[in-house]
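Hi support team,

I'm filing this because I wasn't sure whether my run with magnesium ion finished correctly. The job status page said complete, but I'd like someone to confirm that the output block is well-formed before I use it downstream. Pasting the exact inputs I used:
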Amino acid sequence: MLIAQNGINEGSEAEVYGWVLSIREQKTLSFIIVYENRKQVQLVIKDKKLMSSQLKQNSVIWAKGTIKITDKAPNGFEIHVSSLKVLSKPKKLPPFNIMSTDVPALDLRLDFRALDLRRPYNINLFTIRSKALQYFREYLISKDFLEVQTPKIIATASEGGAALFPLMYYDKQAFLAQSPQLYKEELTMSFERVFEIGPIFRAEPSRTLKHLSEAISLDVEAAFYKNEDLMDFLEDMIKYVINRLYEKEGDALKRIKAPTLDISKKFPRYSYSEVVSWINKNLEEIHEGEDLSSKHLEAFGDHVEGFYFIKDWPLKLKPFYIQPKDGDYSNSFDLMYRGLELSSGGERVHDPALLRKGLKRTGLSAKGFKYHLEVYNYGMPPHGGFGLGVDRFMMVVTGAENIREVVLYPRDVRRLVP
Ligand code: ATP
Ligand code: MG
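And here is everything the job wrote out:
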């Protein structure tokens, strides 16, 4: 916290509360870099008596002094200190230096995540993440979408297939929601356009650099949107957010050495069948209808570069609520960045008889979906939507290779604490 009653001006008085990032002692002067509310402030100390043994990296301090404007200091000014107090001193030697240019191993950093989050890199990264979410909201609200929150404790699997985390709900069995899918679809009946930013829980024991057991999904659902409208919308939203980040968060992006994403062109849209032909020609033989593996997507992603869509997936690879197209295909799409899937979406079934057929096709019992099916009897609009993995989007924006880097306290097969 910085208190500068008369603003940041040469000669004004200022007080600062913060934690020490680094201390540099010279013959006549000492320099301390302090974090105050995610910004670095330089303190200059002439009076050696103010320096005590309690003053070290990670100490929390209060200091008072006079502002001097200088472009040599982090934010264009420094404080020449006249009084200083240590409010909280570290009780232990930290397992790593938060200012070191050597980055400690991820596991060690995650074990001491609160300390790790003090590293300037992470302060920038998580500021960018928070801003990205702000810009997503900004975009969605400007398009007249309503932000909603749906239950995360559910009675039945929303999609089938994916593994669920069971839990005891009083005397009954319940599960953690793997997505807000069915609720967001129902909500288009009342609100027309909705979005939700919230956790999804996936119990598949994946051990990859892109899967978590708890991820954050940005879910969008809108009545009357067709497959192509949804892709247009998602593309426009991604470009809006990236442009806003480049416009407003350039400094933080530069500090974490984020890649520059080229979003000048329209994201190409390939049909699933086109991708299959490409794989057959360039990689190995696969059959129409087969799912595309990471290897396939990575090779195709290297060929395309940047963002692209894969649309019109075989119906049998998609959940029960997806709108069929030309018999064996579906009005669906995935948004990809190179080999990484960022989003899945599509048009949904709104006819109850067809929805029952979808349940049958995917081996789910209509009984478990009784309440959901009932909704479709009261005038369900044609609708569609998508789920965008926020953590995966942050991997793309920051250039992180491991999804755990962009999540405060990641949850995976091995990690439940801290
Ligand atoms: P994948 O094939 O990569 O496992 P999915 O097709 O199972 O993903 P969807 O059910 O389509 O995932 O979920 C929509 C989006 O949510 C995905 O495109 C992805 O960005 C994100 N997502 C899904 N599962 C996870 C997970 N376990 N960890 C992180 N993000 C996830
Ligand atoms: Mg998917």
